[in-house]
């Protein structure tokens, strides 16, 4: 029986990393096959977003503060995943300089992730973050982030991946950081090659017919006239109306409050301006049609905007599995044959994607 790798998921959100890691879903007519992964632990601090996760996965996302999570309560696992918050990083003026955090507790969460890596020692970790992490604190913070991961016992590689290069209809650049305890697996690992640079998936493929869109998603005439009276009327340098024949600009967590003068993408179809619906944002992020969005509109937008695109994570996971199998180690945890059967039973119940 093939090895099944156990995953512990932190800062889980609605589960983009978990869905992409496990695979077995359809998006825009393509099936992303099941990977030999099983999520055995998931946690997030935001209860309404945990509820979205729990509506879609066979494992419950624990509503917890990672600062209060003991290593003893985390099941043994082979792969740790998480997109840690980075807003509060600072570089402490010492010699040598050290990574610290400001008064905001969010900055401390990265160190909690490192704490768990040191205590649980999984074979691999995958961290995802905004591209801006590379330039944080005038470029001084990121090398210290990598150093902290190395101090936790890992050989680390990182790369900025653009979601539009992997079949996702969105120009979303995120840095993926992957670390291996085994040097041979690290040497064997290569980030996935882009697959849709010349022929990206586009907005036109994922938006619903205008006659099905509720009025609440359209901007008022007053808002449109106000935008036209500004210097951004022609270029919309801030709230850019998207070209439906291209991938979307990056969607964020604040889409519920999007305006024509904000930085979030909007649509202008047949002369009418509107925001994307939550389901359209889910497609922009590469979630399958069967993924449930039971939260409020604001919660759904926030969760989707913060999510990792599942299709990108699927490609990264494929590369990780290739590296691990190249240097199969007896240290890697295995599940029993019964566990393997349960993986199928506990997975997402997907319906065929309707064209």
Describe, in plain words, how this protein is organized in 3D:
- The protein has 355 residues and is α/β, with parallel strands linked by helices.
- The chain folds into two domains: 5-198 and 288-346, Vaccinia Virus protein VP39 (Rossmann fold, 3-Layer(aba) Sandwich); 209-276, no CATH class.
- Helices cover 27% and strands 19% of the residues.
- It is built from ten helices and 15 strands.
- The protein has a seven-stranded mixed beta sheet, sandwiched between helices. Strands 2-3 form a two-stranded antiparallel ribbon.
- Helix 1 crosses helix 9.
- The longest helix has 17 residues, at 310-326.
- It is globular.
- It starts with a strand and ends in a 9-residue tail after the last helix.
Helix/strand-derived category reads alpha/beta
If you average the pLDDT, what whole number results? 88
What kind of oligomer do you see? single chain
Overall geometry comes to: globular
Radius of gyration: 21 Å
Compressed to H and E, one letter per element, the order equals: EHEEEHEEEEHEHEEEHHEEEHHHH
Number of helices: 10
What strand line-up does the widest sheet have? Answer: 5-4-1-6-9-12-10
Count the domains.
Answer: 2
The largest β sheet comes out as: 7 strands, mixed
> Would you state the CATH class of the largest domain?
Alpha Beta
Strand content: 15-25%
Which CATH-level-2 architecture of the largest domain? 3-Layer(aba) Sandwich
Report low-confidence residues grouped into runs of 5 or more: 332-355
- Distance between the ends: 36 Å
Percent of residues in helices? 25-40%
* Name of the CATH superfamily of the largest domain: Vaccinia Virus protein VP39
Task: Count the E strands.
Answer: 15
- At the fold tier of CATH, the topology name of the largest domain is Rossmann fold
